[in-house]
Specification:
Blueprint: H1 2-22, H2 24-29, H3 32-50, H4 56-79, H5 81-88, E1 92-96, E2 99-100, H6 102-107, H7 112-121, E3 130-135, E4 141-145, H8 154-157, E5 168-172, E6 175-176, H9 178-184, H10 188-197, E7 206-211, E8 217-221
Antiparallel strand pairs: 1-2, 1-3, 3-4, 5-6, 5-7, 7-8
Helix pairs in contact: 1-3, 1-4, 3-4, 4-5
């Protein structure tokens, strides 16, 4: 029992390492190639756990080999458009200028009910509202509405665009988030000086300080919360 727990823990770390090395981009796409790789990672990690007669070295070799193949193919796909299409597929135009491409629907084995269902999920209940519909390699449906059905934007209303900034946590649980300080253009001293001008107390009493999307500093003190233990900030 203890041996199985140890093997499970080690293989969990190895599988996690393999997926992390693959990169976040691979996890976000989930096209057929990435889907196969993730299924194989889970299966290869499970074999040494389910079968104690399979050595850990065998499982590790299989996972690292799969990682090498995946990274190699990902690199080659950046250099070759043909290989990228072969591995990941390509986008398919299902609706063009409001007209259905019935041949493409038949080739992809997509029924009108399936297409209508996906359009409703995108908040387009009628096909007459759609100018273009594109099936992406990851299976998602991108929809471009007709001009008269498109959502009104600030530019359409003639409203000026108000600049916005990315919200950044600067202090979490009384500790500075150094990387975010640099992005926000603050040093520790300049931030504390700014907070003092706003009447904020000493650093140890500050639970959270962040710069919001308008560039304003928002501060929350420890006494505003009933906290025994706060996990470290993941954005620092």
């Amino acid at each position: 029992m203890v041996l199985i727990a140890i093997r499970t823990f080690i293989l969990y770390l190895i599988a996690l390492f393999v997926i992390r090395v693959m990169g976040q981009g691979e996890l976000s796409k989930m096209d057929p190639f990435q889907t196969v790789v993730l299924f194989m990672v889970s299966n290869l990690a499970a074999f040494p756990i389910e079968s104690p007669d399979i050595s850990m070295f065998t499982g590790l070799t299989a996972l690292l080999t799969l990682l090498f193949i995946q990274v190699l193919f990902s690199f080659l796909s950046l250099k070759s458009r043909r290989l990228r299409k072969l591995l990941s597929g390509k986008s398919s135009l299902l609706v063009e200028k409001g007209e259905l491409d019935t041949r493409e629907l038949a080739r992809l084995r997509i029924t009108l009910d399936d297409l209508s269902s996906q359009l409703r999920l995108k908040n387009f209940p009628s096909l007459n509202d759609v100018d273009y519909a594109v099936l992406e390699p990851n299976g998602d449906l991108s929809v471009i509405p007709k001009y008269e059905k498109a959502a009104v934007t600030r530019a359409d209303l003639g409203c000026g665009k108000k600049p916005q900034e990315l919200p950044l946590i600067l202090i979490a649980d009384g500790a500075f988030c150094r990387s975010n300080l640099q992005k926000a253009g603050f040093s520790k001293e300049s931030l504390l000086e700014q907070l003092r001008k706003q009447g904020a107390p000493e650093l140890s009493r500050i639970f959270l300080c962040y710069r919001d999307e308008t560039g304003t500093l928002q501060t929350y003190l420890r006494e505003q919360f009933d906290l025994e233990e706060v996990p470290p900030c993941a954005h620092c």
